[in-house]
Amino acid sequence: MTENKKYCCPVAAAIDEIGGKWKPLILWALKDQTLRFSEINRELPAITQRMLTKQLRELERDDLVNRKVYAEVPPKVEYSLTAKGKSVIPILKLLCDWGEEYCKSKICLNVLE
Amino acid sequence: MTENKKYCCPVAAAIDEIGGKWKPLILWALKDQTLRFSEINRELPAITQRMLTKQLRELERDDLVNRKVYAEVPPKVEYSLTAKGKSVIPILKLLCDWGEEYCKSKICLNVLE
DNA sequence: CCGTATCCCATGAGATACTG
DNA sequence: CAGTATCTCATGGGATACGG
Asked: Where is the HTH hxlR-type domain positioned along the sequence (chains A, B) (predicted)?
C-alpha cells in the first residue's frame, strides 16, 4: 500500500495494490456502477468512514478508481472504476466463485462484515 | 485468518483464507512441487521462520496445504497443495498476469521481498 | 454529504536467540 | 532441520467527535 516499494514477484506487487480487507470489496461494489461515497458505505456497512476514505485514496493513487468531485453544496463525489480497475474484476469474479464453493460454511447473509 | 468468523460476501471469505502478504506467495511456490520447510524459505527469502510457520499452520487448518512429517533425525517435513489448494492456482495465475501487466514499475528482479 | 482529527487496540511482521 | 520463544515496532483498523 505504500509508495515506491519494489517486489520480486508480480503476485506480491498485485497483492499490494488490490489486496487487504477492503479494497477487493470496494472494487467489487463499483464493478458495474458509479457510486457516491455514502452509497459505497451503504454497500459495505461494516467499514468506517475513516477506512473508506483511506482505501479510496490509495485506489485513486494507484489509478484503480476515478474520483469526481462536483462543486455543489452539499458536496457530491462520485467514484468509478478506471480501465485498470475494470481489469481486476475478472480476478474478483473468480475469487467470488471460489469463495462460494470452498468457504460456504463461513458465509452468512445475515451478518455484517 | 481467525476461526469461526462469518462473512456476508464470498469475496471477503476468500480473502480471509488466501489473502495477506505471504499466503499467495506460499501457495504459488507450491503450485507444482512438494517442498520442505527450508525449501519454501529459500524461495521466499524475505519471510522469517516465525511467519512461515504461522502461515503454514493457517493454510493447513483451512485445508489448503498438506503437512507430512517424516519420523527421521534430522526432521523432515514436506508441504504440498491439497485439492482445495490447487483450486486457487488459476486465480493466482490471473493475479500474476495482472501484476506483470499493470505493476511493471514496482517489479524488480534483483530485490528481495 | 463527505470527509478530518484523535485516540486506541489488535494483529502483522521483523530480529534474534534457542532447542529436540 | 524445523521449528519455539521473546521482544519489539509498524500498520490496519475501530470508535467517536467534529467541520466545511
From this structure: 9-107
pLDDT in tens, B41-57: 999 999 999 999 999 99
Bases in strand D with any atom closer than 7 Å to a protein CB: 1-6, 11-17, 20
What residues does A67 pair with on adjacent strands?
A79
- Beta-carbon separation of A6 and B96 below 8 A: no
Whether any strand C atom is under 7 angstroms from the Cβ of A37: the reply reads yes
A20 touching B (Cβ < 8 Å)? yes
Q: Which of B16, B61, B107 to mutate to test the interface with A (most CBs of A within 10 A)?
A: B107
Compute the distance between CA of residue B113 and CA of residue B21 in angstroms, rounded to an integer: 10
3-state secondary structure of B29: helix
C-alpha cell at B111: 530485490
* pTM higher than the cut 0.90: yes
State residue A6's pLDDT score.
80
CA distance B85 to B62: 9
- Peptide bond connecting A90 to the previous residue in cis, omega within 30 degrees of 0: no
pLDDT at B5: 77
Three-class SS of residue A80? strand
* Cα gap B79→B23, rounded to integer Å: 13
Asked if B13 lies within 8 A of A109 by C-beta distance, the reply is no
Q: Which residues pair with B94 in a beta bridge?
A: none
3-state class of B76 per DSSP? strand
CA distance B8 to A22: 13
